[in-house]
Amino acid sequence: MSATTAGALRVPLDELAGRIRAALRGLGLAEAHVQAMARVIAAGQRDACQSHGIYRVLTCARTVRAGKVDLHAEPVVEADGSAVVRVDARHAFSPLAFERGLPMLAEVTRRHGVGALAIRHCFHFSALWPEIEMITAHGLAALAMTPSHAWVAPAGGHKPVFGTNPIAFGWPRPGPTPLVFDFATSAIARGDLELHRRTGTPLPPDCGVDAAGHPSTDPVAVASGAMRAFGGHKGSALAMMVELMAGALIGDWTSRESLDFDAGAGAAPCHGELILAFDPVRLGGADSVDGQRRAEDMFDAITAQGARLPSQRRFEARERSLREGVTVPAGLYREMLAMAGGVA
Ligand code: NDP
Ligand code: PYC
Fold first, then answer.
1. N or C: which end of the chain has fewer CB within 10 A?
2. What is the pLDDT of residue 226?
3. Is 190 a pocket residue for ligand 2 (Cβ < 6 Å)?
4. Does residue 199 form part of some domain?
5. Taking 50 as the threshold, does the pLDDT of residue 344 lie above it?
6. Index of the ligand 1 atom closest to the CA of residue 317
7. Dist. CA 128–CA 181, nearest whole Å
8. Is 66 domain-assigned?
């Protein structure tokens, strides 16, 4: 571990992952959950996703203290020969449920050309791109979405109805990294709002309103008022779609029900997730190789003009982390070490 700029440390990835696992073990989680959760949290910090890196260990601790998450439940995978795979997470955290469902999702997608993984009854705290990258590693395209807690007002309103409802997409590419985008349908992710609240810094403009419905950049005021969807009515419609597709459609809760269930505990949201996978070989047939080439031509047309592809920043951060160690905020790191009984 070494100091970098003020307030940041650089930690080798293996050491960071070990510290995360130790902190999660300290919460009493079963080892299979520890391993799956640590993989997504370490990946988040490695890729410089501050809202979904080691900060999530604190979210998980709050969730465990709230007493509703099952620390040991083994997910139950159900497949009936169709293109649908269902996983009941049994009120445990979601990463293990995803990992348990993934092999069957890949198999049904190869068999049918498309596949759906419906995860239900999970506590969800993570970014979606780690899951998307695990699917593109099978040579499949993927789309994932999940509700959260009702923090976001519909366009034209000022009372929360939707969650921050991320949508993530992945496209397999030749070479080591796929094309991935992954974003909250809110103007800012709740995790970023919470980081602003921790540091006492204002939000960017247009992220939310206070309890009286007035625009505000105060993270505390917006947390007790409502966040906004990104892009006005368009982001609002996408957020609504996520509630329907990854909530009502798969027989699980919407963000409103998740927040009611939370009852002020401040735990991670509890609901479902929908993940769709597509096999380019089955869908494109003999033209799938040509399709891949034309996709690459399009990516070239983007980057040739100086624009960047989504995830490029993340992949660059990943390379830097692997080369030089992962940059971690010192205060958060010390809090996490303290949870594991370690010293900074
Ligand atoms: P960002 O706004 O940081 O990034 C959104 C996407 O756009 C990323 O793929 C990013 O790539 C890409 N991007 C950003 N700037 C550019 C640019 N100039 N040109 C091209 N692409 C660009 O994401 P959010 O803050 O909205 O979300 C952060 C994370 O929070 C997500 O991973 C999401 O899954 C997670 N989240 C999870 C929730 C849950 O309920 N589990 C709820 C809400 C959010 P890059 O990363 O390379 O910058
Ligand atoms: O950042 O909005 C968010 C979020 C919600 C649940 C996990 N992350």
1. C
2. 98
3. yes
4. no
5. no
6. 47
7. 9
8. yes
